[in-house]
Design goal:
Number of helices: 5
Strand order of the largest sheet: 1-2
Number of strands: 2
Order of helices and strands: HHEEHHH
Low-confidence stretches: none
Radius of gyration: 24 Å
Mean pLDDT: 85
Shape: flat
Distance between the termini: 31 Å
Oligomer: single chain
Largest sheet: 2 strands, antiparallel
Amino acid sequence: GHEISLASRVKENPKAFYSYVRSKRVTRVRIGPLKDKRGNLCVDSEEMGEILDEYFASVFTKERDMTDIEVRDGCLNTLGQVVIRKGEVLGILKDIKLDKSPGPDVIYPRLLR
């Protein structure tokens, strides 16, 4: 049936297989209750979201503004000549995994192949 078909195509389409496996799991992971700053237990989803937001904002550093960085002469490494070979690019594109998300260029792997 359907399970045998998914299992036989797991190498070609792992996303479909693992999606099916996840749908059959009995237990669901839940978050909470969480304690707020005063030590009170919170079970409301919105309140827990705010608690997590505050926590993550406090532990992650803010990126510096790059406009205040001084650049001195001789400090910059420059890139020389870049050689791109058609065969190498085609080889990489041939092996690209189609079930992956797009990269920073927002181009889907299926389109690249």
